[in-house]
């Protein structure tokens, strides 16, 4: 069989590969602490589960509109008003099976041979994978440790060329936990005035996970780019619903129709019962979100302190999400070497920084979506290994 050349350009997400290896080792009897996979270690709140069960019992078993049932899109619009103070027409909202679908649609709309798409590096690996799959040139936006892994608006704007079609922004960020300050976003949006044809996709899937009393700064707060801004958000992280596969995109009016058409051509619609769970998540009690984020915040302090006690490690405190991204250059090991050593020899699963881009060498990602006891035990195993 002869596959399309584009398939050779498609990358992967290493966290799932490490998860598979860790699972295999665990099945063989090895003690594994998994700090690699990026998903909350909390269950989906019971009221959300019950909403899905009720929807199934009430007979919601068929197709729905491709962009999501109206009540769900209205709930998203209400959430946008409540949390971002932005009025959004539900017709601009397209609900999809997970945040990656909004990402795929946006990159597919703008990516083609001869085009350039900018993406954060270190960053979520699927950005680069999908950009290259379309045939576009993937242009990395370097994120620097000394800036807390926030981008420099000046550096980003300087990389724009006549071929630039789309810029991807992610804050709070995976894998670094970096948060872009409002002041940088101000400069970024101001600079975009000189580039009216460049679109922006803002991945804000971790928007509810900001710490130290710093409010989330959203690009939706800038009406001057509303006609070219795509917002990516969803339920997976905020409501511990990773396996439910439910996300939303807020699209410029002129692009919402294209996103809906892509939905029709790919997945038809989101699982009907899941959409009712999504309504309950947004409209129901929010206490579980606060409790989960509070727990992540406490673990954040623990893991940063523990990592900074490991010889050869240094770790800046992440401002959001649930990831720590320590510098491991002092160990004398490459990121991939350390990842493999720790999994095979100590049973600690983490992800190499090079899995997140060319600027990830010298770093590894830890997810602190795990208990404090697991975090402490993992760091102790690493200390013993490196001392050995």
Quick overview:
With 388 residues, the chain is of the alpha/beta class.
Can you say what the CATH homologous superfamily of the largest domain is? Type I PLP-dependent aspartate aminotransferase-like (Major domain)
The SSE string, one letter per element, is HEHHEHEHEHEHEEEHHHEHEEEH
Proportion of residues in extended strands: 5-15%
Structural class: alpha/beta
Count of strand segments: 12
Number of helices: 12
Blueprint of the fold:
Blueprint: H1 14-27, E1 33-34, H2 46-57, H3 70-84, E2 93-96, H4 99-110, E3 116-121, H5 125-134, E4 137-142, H6 153-158, E5 164-170, H7 182-191, E6 199-203, E7 229-234, E8 247-250, H8 253-266, H9 272-283, H10 287-308, E9 323-324, H11 335-346, E10 348-349, E11 351-352, E12 364-367, H12 372-387
Parallel strand pairs: 1-10, 3-4, 3-5, 5-6, 6-7
Antiparallel strand pairs: 2-8, 7-8, 9-12, 11-12
Helix pairs in contact: 2-9, 3-9, 4-5, 10-12
Would you kindly provide a written description of the structure presented here, covering whatever features stand out?
By secondary structure, this protein is α/β, with parallel strands linked by helices. The protein folds into 2 domains: 5-43 and 287-387, Aspartate Aminotransferase, domain 1, CATH 3.90.1150; 62-283, Aspartate Aminotransferase, domain 2 (3-Layer(aba) Sandwich), CATH 3.40.640. The chain is built from 12 helices and 12 strands. The chain has helices spanning 14-27, 46-57, 70-84, 99-110, 125-134, 153-158, 182-191, 253-266, 272-283, 287-308, 335-346, 372-387, and strands at 33-34, 93-96, 116-121, 137-142, 164-170, 199-203, 229-234, 247-250, 323-324, 348-349, 351-352, 364-367. It has a 7-stranded mixed sheet with strand order 2-8-7-6-5-3-4, with helices on both faces. A 3-stranded antiparallel sheet has the order 9-12-11. Helix 5 (125-134) links the parallel strand 3 and strand 4 (137-142). The radius of gyration is 21 Å and the shape is globular. It starts with 13 loop residues before the first helix and ends with a helix. 47% of the residues are buried.
